[in-house]
Amino acid sequence: MATSGVMSGLEMHDFAWKLWSLPRSITGSGLRRTLEMISEELGGLSIYEVPSGTAVGDWVIPDEWTLRRSILIDPHGKIICDSDVSNLHVVNYSEPFDGKMELGELQQYLHSLPDLPTAVPYMTSYYERRWGFCLPHQIRERLVNGVYTIRMDTDLQPGSLTYGDLVIPGKSKKEILISTYVCHPSMANNELSGPVVSTNLIKYLRSLNSRRYTYRFVFAPETIGAITYIHNNLEHLRKHVVGALNLTCLGDDRTYSLLPTRGGKHRLDTIARHVLKHLSKDYVEYPWTSRGSDERQYSSPGLDLPMISIMRSKYWEYPEYHTSLDDLVDLVTPSGLQGGFQAIQRTLDILECDVFPGSNIVGEPMLSRRNLYSTLGGSRFSVKRNLLLDVWSFCDGTNSALDIAHHLNLRFDEVLEAVTVLQDNHLVVTGPVLLD
Amino acid sequence: MATSGVMSGLEMHDFAWKLWSLPRSITGSGLRRTLEMISEELGGLSIYEVPSGTAVGDWVIPDEWTLRRSILIDPHGKIICDSDVSNLHVVNYSEPFDGKMELGELQQYLHSLPDLPTAVPYMTSYYERRWGFCLPHQIRERLVNGVYTIRMDTDLQPGSLTYGDLVIPGKSKKEILISTYVCHPSMANNELSGPVVSTNLIKYLRSLNSRRYTYRFVFAPETIGAITYIHNNLEHLRKHVVGALNLTCLGDDRTYSLLPTRGGKHRLDTIARHVLKHLSKDYVEYPWTSRGSDERQYSSPGLDLPMISIMRSKYWEYPEYHTSLDDLVDLVTPSGLQGGFQAIQRTLDILECDVFPGSNIVGEPMLSRRNLYSTLGGSRFSVKRNLLLDVWSFCDGTNSALDIAHHLNLRFDEVLEAVTVLQDNHLVVTGPVLLD
Amino acid sequence: MATSGVMSGLEMHDFAWKLWSLPRSITGSGLRRTLEMISEELGGLSIYEVPSGTAVGDWVIPDEWTLRRSILIDPHGKIICDSDVSNLHVVNYSEPFDGKMELGELQQYLHSLPDLPTAVPYMTSYYERRWGFCLPHQIRERLVNGVYTIRMDTDLQPGSLTYGDLVIPGKSKKEILISTYVCHPSMANNELSGPVVSTNLIKYLRSLNSRRYTYRFVFAPETIGAITYIHNNLEHLRKHVVGALNLTCLGDDRTYSLLPTRGGKHRLDTIARHVLKHLSKDYVEYPWTSRGSDERQYSSPGLDLPMISIMRSKYWEYPEYHTSLDDLVDLVTPSGLQGGFQAIQRTLDILECDVFPGSNIVGEPMLSRRNLYSTLGGSRFSVKRNLLLDVWSFCDGTNSALDIAHHLNLRFDEVLEAVTVLQDNHLVVTGPVLLD
Q1: Chain B contact for C17, CB < 8 A?
Q2: Do the chains contact at C364 and A262, CB–CB below 8 Å?
Q3: CA B112 to CA B152: how far, in whole Å?
Q4: What is the 3-class SS of A108-139, one letter each residue?
Q5: Does C128 contact B366 at a Cβ distance shorter than 8 Å?
Q6: In terms of domains, do B361 and B377 share one?
Q7: Do residue A125 and residue C376 have CB atoms under 8 angstroms apart?
Q8: Is residue B307 in some structural domain?
Q9: How far is B294 from chain A (nearest CA, A)?
C-alpha cells in the first residue's frame, strides 16, 4: 500500500513491526523482502542485485546466505534454540551443519551474555565459515549433559547482494545523500528505526511543493552494502553529493546524540548542533573516534562526503545494543521514533529554508509606521531589544538566517519568521544558502 | 566666543550648563540654538536644514515642533507642570491642546515612574500625534479630584530638521567619523556629555601640529538626524570613512563601557579595549544586541561603517537614564567628563601615532655601547628582561606598536616610547598604521 | 679519537669532563682548544677565525683575551683566588693588572653572592675594560685587613674570534640549523651540556642510512659568535634554513622546558610540544619574553629563522645558574644528559620521519582477510576502536602522522607504526612532510 501522507510515531512503530521478523542479513531473502516491503510502502524503490564474487573496493561480495528453520535440540528432545522463534538464535551467516554433539564439544558453538542473562546476543560471521547458536545465558547454564542434535539448515551459495535507492528531484542537482542499513535481523533501535524514519522522510519530502536539493536515499546492508553502493556510483557521488546523513538508532526516548563529520566544522555540523541544542540541551556529541556506521565508508579518504549521524541512543552506548532486548516493546516507542524523525526533519528544513538576507535600505527601517514598533518612545521602560531590528542589523548578505540565530541566541525558525516579515515589508531580499 | 585651547573637565561642565535648558528635540528652535552655541564655541560649524516631508532612507522628515510655555493647572489653580521649570514636563513632540479635563480622564495623558517617585520621566511621540505631561510620581499620587486646565502651547508645522558638521583635514583623505546627537532636552550623561566632549575633541585635534587622518564631526538628532546625514553624504561616507565613533554617555564617574563594532574584531575594537583596560580593568564590554544609538544607522547593512561607542555608564544601564535625575549636579561631574574625554583622546592618539617598526639591522643591537644596557654581564642578578630588546625583537614590520604592547602586556605609550628610542638610535624605521 | 658510535649518557658526561677546565671565553685559547677537541671527537670540524675589529651587524669583534695563571694573595701570603683552581675566579675578559691594594680599595674589584655563600659567581666584562676576582661570599667575609697582591696576568690584544661548523648532507638542500655556544668557562648545564649533546647528535645523524634534511651544526661563542656566524652566512641561512634549534641547558634531571619560536605556531613548536608532553607531562613552556640565548640572533627581525630551545632546567630558572655550583658532580648527570639528548633526538626523528599518508582505496580496508581484525563480529563485546582503521580514516593526504597522533591523542611513533602497517598492506601511500 503506497501512502502519500507523512506517518505518525505510531504508524512508524507499526511499520517497524511489519519488518520485525524478516531474517535480514547482508545478503539473502530477508534483506530482499525488507526492500520489497519498503518499496511497497513508498510505491517503488529501485532495487539492484550485485553477484557474489564481485570486487568492490578492498572487498568481495560473499556468497548469498539462506536461512531455513534451524534448531538445536537437547538430549531430552527439547528445542533449545529455534530460528522461527527468533532469528537471533542463529549466528548470522552460519554455514549448514547437521549432526549430533556432546554438550562439552557443543559449547564452542554457543554464544551468550553472562552480564545480560535473559538476552539473546546478536552474532555474525560473514567472512569466515562458522556456525553457531545464540541463547540467553540463564538457559545455557541449565543445559543438561548428553548428546545434542543440531539442524543448521542454511545455504551459502553464489547469489547476489541486494540494495535499493530512491531519488527525489529538487531544483538543484546538488544532492543530499541519506543512507540507512537493512542487514540486522530482529532489532529495533539499531536497526529498524533507521529504514522506518528514512521511509517517512521520503514521504515528508514528497509532501513539499518543491525542494531546493535533490535527495538520494539508499537502503543497503551496512559496510559491504555501502561500499558496493559507493563503487557502483562513485563518480556520481563525487560530483553531486554536497551533504550526507546516516540514519541509525533513531527510536528510543532516552537522549539525542550527534556523530559529526570527521572535521567537525561543516555547515551540516552547525545545523545539527543547532537542531539538537534546541531539542535537548543535554544531547551528547561524540568524537570521530566513536564512529561505527556507514560514515566509515561515505566519509572514507578519497570520497570524503561530509556525513553526520543524528541519533537517539547511539550504538554501543545503551545496554540492549546488539541483543534481543533492542526491541519494539520496551526500548523503541512511537514517541521515540517521532523524536528521531523530528530531529532529521528539522535538519532538512534548515537545509531547505536557510537564506542569506540582504537589506534593501541604508539606515534602520521605520517599524512604527508599519505597526511593528511602539510609537511612544523615550521611556526607560520601552522595550530595549526588538527582534526585527536585531535580525535586520545582520542582514548584510554574509550572514544566513542560521548564522543570525547563533549571533542572537535564537532558534532558526524564530529568525526565519523575522526575515519573512522583513521580506514581506520589502526591507530585505534573500538568496538561498546552498552547500558547496 | 571661539577658544583654541583644550577645555578642562570643569570647563566642559560649564559648557554643558550653558546648553542645559534649551528645549532640544529632533527639530526646532532648541536644536537649532544648541548647534549655534556649539558653532560659536568652535568658531564655526556648517549647519544644514532639511525640509519636512523629505524622504531619507525608510523615513520621512516630520513637521517641525515648536514648544512655548506649556502648563498643567490643578482645580485650585496651582501649576503642576511647567515647561519653563523643566522642558521634561512636556512629552516631546506634543501636539497643541487647550482645554479642561477631569482628573480621571487626564490620567491617560500623564506619565510618571512609580519606582523613581521623585523623577520626571523623559517621553517622546515623534511619529504619532499625541500630547502629554510628565511629572514625579509622588506629585501625581497627591493630585486632587476636579477639573484640570491644560495649556499645551506647541506647534507642529512644516519646517526643517537641522544638523551640523565640521571637518578637520589631515594628511590622508581617509576619514574618522565622530558623531554625537543633540536632540535630548535637559539631560546630562545621555546627552550633553556627547556634544560637549565632541566639542573638546575638535579643540584637541586642532591643537595638534598635524593629523594623520581627516576627522568628520557630526552633530545631529539621534536616529532621524543620523539617517538624514547618511543619505545626504552616502557616497562620500562609503568612499572615505575608515573608522567611526559614536559619542554618548561620557559624563559620570562610575565606570567605563564599550559597545564594539558589529563583528567585534575591527582594529578600532582592539584599540578601544586597550585604552579601556588600562583606564579601568573593570570596564564593561556589551554585546552588539545591546546597541541603541547611532551605530544602528552608521553600521547599517549596506553602509557598514565600523563604529564603536566608548562610554562611561551606558544608556539603559544606570537608574537615572531618561529622567530628570540624569543631571549636572549629582550624576555628571567635571571629573566624569574629563575621564570620558580622556578615553576618546587616547583612542585617537593610538589612531594617530601607531606605527609598524622594522629593524634596520640583523642580530640584536648592541645597547651597551649606547649606554642603554649594563656593561657588566654574566651575573645571575643582571636584569633578565630589557624593554628595548623585547620591543625590538618584534620589529619585523608586521607588528605595530599596539600589537607589540599586546604581546608584551605593556601600555601603548610605553612601547611607543621604546620604538622612538630605537628609531632615534637608527635601529628601526617606522611606517604609519592606517585603517583600510 | 673519532668515534662513529652514538655516545651513552655516561660517555657524554665523560666528554664534558674533558672540556671542563678549558678557560673558555668569547675569544682566545680556551675557546679555540674547545673547538679542537670537539673536532677531534668528530673527526673534523670546519674552524674559522674572524679578526678583532671586524664589524658584524651592530657589533665589532673585540680584542682577543688571553688568561694566564692569575692570583689574588692576602696580606699573609695566602692565595685567595687562583685561576688554576677555577677559571671562574677571574672576571672573564679582565684586563691585565699587577699591583698591591688595601682591602678597602680592593672590595670594588671583588664579586660574591651573599645568598649563595659557597658559590663562585660567573662574571664577564667583554665590552668595557675592567678587572676583577670572583670568590665565595663566606671567604670574602673572612678576608683580613691589610695589603693584597694582585697578579692579573691576562692579555687583551688584537687577535680573532673563533667558531666552528659542520654540515651533514641530506636528500634535501633544506637545512635544519642546530646551534650551541662554547664561551662559558667551567659550567655544566649552562654550558657544556649544549656542545656535548650537539656532538652526540652529529654522531646520531651520521649513524642513519640517509637523512631527509641537511643539518648545519654551529659551535660559536654566544651572542657575538652567533651574530658573526649570521653575517658571514646571511644569504645562505636565508635561502636554506627551514628550522632551527638552540642547544643549551640539557644536562640536569629536574624537568623539561621549551622556549618556542617567537610566534609559537610553527610546526617545530608542535613537534617539540608533542615530544615533551610524552616525555614529561609537567614540562614547562616559557613565553618569548623569557628568551635569553641565541634565538635572540637567529630569530632576529630581518632573518626570522624559526628557532626553538628544548631544555632541561632553563637558564635563569635554577639556583646554581652562572655559578661554580653549575657542575658535573651534583647538577649535571649522565642520566640528565641522556634525557636532554633523547628529547632532541625524538624531535629530529619526527622531522625526519613524519609523512602525509593518503589512502589507496575508497571505502574501508577489509582488515579481517589480512588477519588484522577479528572475524567474529556483531557482539557488543567486540573491540569498538581499531587503531589501524582510526589512523586510516585520516589518511586523506592532508593530515601528517603527527597531525593524526594529535587527532587520536596517541604518540607519534604509535601512529607511524600503524601507517607503516597500512603501507606494507598497500592501503596507503605516503609522501614526506617537509618544512617550508
Answers
A1: no
A2: no
A3: 18
A4: HHEECCCCCCCCCECCECCCCCCCCEECCHHH
A5: no
A6: yes
A7: yes
A8: yes
A9: 9
- Whether residue A44 is found in the same domain as residue A127: no
Judge: B288–A407 Cβ closer than 8 Å, yes or no: yes
Residues B178 and B301 in one domain: yes
> Tens place of pLDDT for every residue, chain A, 436 residues?
344 599 999 999 999 999 999 999 999 999 999 999 999 999 999 999 999 999 999 999 999 999 999 999 999 999 999 999 999 999 999 999 999 999 999 999 999 999 999 999 999 999 999 999 999 999 999 999 999 999 999 999 999 999 999 999 999 999 999 999 999 999 999 999 999 999 999 999 999 999 999 999 999 999 999 999 999 999 999 999 999 999 999 999 999 999 999 999 999 999 999 999 999 989 999 999 999 999 999 999 999 999 999 999 999 999 999 999 999 999 999 999 999 999 999 999 999 999 999 999 999 999 988 888 766 665 554 445 689 999 999 999 999 999 999 999 999 999 999 999 999 999 999 999 999 9
Quote the cell numbers at residue C198: 650537539
CA separation for the pair C350, C356 (Å, rounded): 12
How far apart are alpha carbons A214 and A200 in whole angstroms? 16
B363 contact C CB<8A: yes
For residue B76, give the CATH number of its domain. 3.50.30.90
Range of the domain at C109: 67-157
The neighbouring-strand residues paired with A324 are none
Whether chain C has a CB inside 8 Å of the CB on B394: the answer is yes
CB atoms B57 and A384 under 8 Å: no
Q: Smallest Cβ distance to C301: which of B369, B390, B396? A: B396
Question: What DSSP element (H or E) covers C188?
Answer: none
Asked if residue A4 belongs to a domain, the reply is no
> Are residues A165 and A293 both part of a single domain?
yes
CB contact B186 to A (< 8 Å) = no
Domain check: are B378 and B391 in the same one?
yes
Say whether residue B286 is in contact with chain A using an 8 A CB cutoff.
no
Chain A CB within 8 Å of residue B303 CB: yes
In this complex, is the C-beta atom of A366 within 8 Å of any C-beta atom belonging to chain B? yes
Kindly state the cell numbers that stand for C189.
648545564
Contact A364 B296 (CB under 8 A): yes
What residues of chain A lie within 8 A of the CB of B62, using their CB?
none
Distance from CA of C11 to the nearest CA of B (A): 29
Question: Which of C157, C189, C204 is the C-terminal boundary of a domain?
Answer: C157
Alpha-carbon span C403 to C394, nearest angstrom: 9
**Do C140 and C176 belong to one domain?**
no
Query: What is the spatial distance between Cα C391 and Cα B408, in angstroms, rounded to a whole number?
Result: 40
Q: Are residues A334 and A394 in the same domain?
A: no
Instruction: Examine the domain organization and report whether C172 and C234 are in the same domain.
Output: yes
> Closest Cα partner for B251 from B430, B19, B85, B55?
B19
Last-in-domain residue among B157, B192, B216: B157
Q: How far apart are CA C433 and CA C436, in angstroms?
A: 9
Q: Which of A174, A86, A71 is nearest to A131 (CA)?
A: A71
User: Is residue B380 less than 8 Å (CB to CB) from chain C?
Assistant: yes
* Structural domain includes residue C1: no
Q: Is C345 among the domain residues?
A: yes
Interface contact flag, A121 C379, Cβ < 8 Å:
yes
Total domains in chain A come to: 3
Q: What is the domain-level CATH number for residue B418?
A: 1.10.10
A359 interfaces chain B, CB cutoff of 8 Å: yes
C-alpha cell at B109: 495623558
The alpha carbon of residue A431 is apart from the nearest alpha carbon of chain B, in Å, by 16
CATH number of the domain at B170, please: 3.40.630.10
Selected for mutation to probe chain A from C374, C380, C381, C426 (highest A CB count within 10 Å) is C380
Q: Which chains touch A (3 or more CB pairs under 8 A)?
A: B, C
> ipTM of the predicted structure?
0.93
Q: Which residue has the cell 644569504?
A: C235
Strand-strand pairing, A428-432 and A355-359: antiparallel
